[in-house]
Amino acid sequence: MEPIVARKTWRTVEPVHGIVYFGRERLDAYARVGVSAEAGYFVTRAAAMGAVDAPVVVATFFNFNPAFVHRCMDGAWSLTTPLDAVAARLEAAGAMLRRLLGADIAQSAEVVEAATLARRAADRAAELQEGRPLFAGHAALPWPSMDDGAHLVLWHAQTLLREFRGDGHIAALTAEGVSGCEALAVHAGTGELAAEALRSSRQWSRQEWAEACERLRARGWLDGHDELTGAGRAHRQWVEDRTDVLALPAYEVLGEDGCERLRTLARPLSKAIVAGGELTLLRPA
What we know:
Layout: H1 4-18, H2 25-32, H3 37-46, H4 54-61, H5 66-73, H6 76-79, H7 82-101, H8 109-125, H9 133-139, H10 150-175, H11 180-189, H12 195-201, H13 206-218, H14 230-252, H15 255-275
Helix pairs in contact: 1-10, 1-14, 1-15, 2-3, 2-7, 3-5, 3-7, 4-5, 7-10, 8-10, 8-14, 8-15, 9-10, 10-14, 11-13
């Protein structure tokens, strides 16, 4: 199976997971467990690894300003527990999906089938945890049941597949000697997203961003306009291709037909979520 299939399948289903970082219900969930809107993203996502301190979050989330992470995580575990944070996140995800996709989504035959396929892939990924710390934490969480709602099973499966891919992506970037801020500057150099949005959402100062760009220009990856050079595009392509290779084992269990079926089932769900207009860079995924 070609590695690009892993990227296509992940990308098609990703809004089902990603809405948890953007939908308005997340703010109520954060408040219920006593953390701020700013800290809630870090606390509820990191909670799968237990009551970890800021340095672990810096390492596993990768592209955020460490000072920002330290500020958000400071005292977090005196306000809530990992168990409560994980539960709040799942509850918020369920509420968002029901609002955007309809109350009957929980037992929809199409969602049941999509959830079953995605869980097969996630279960396969769970056999391959070595070197994937953030994924391993999430893989240790209990699965929602189909009785709880097929949408929750699908959300949890995509959460695992997203973190499985993400840990592999960080490994590829690390192998290339790229820092978190530099990775964002490379992304900005593609022209796909505005540099200012990437910089501000991850809380890097303008000086830190400028220094990262200067290092990338010294490597020959950015030109004088902070756009990717040929060498920069080659680096970016290598990282993306290697990420696909590292993610592929999770999807091979489905085969190409299974992956295409999952994409077909998930596509209308993802389109409806995107149409809701809440997916932005304001709360990073």
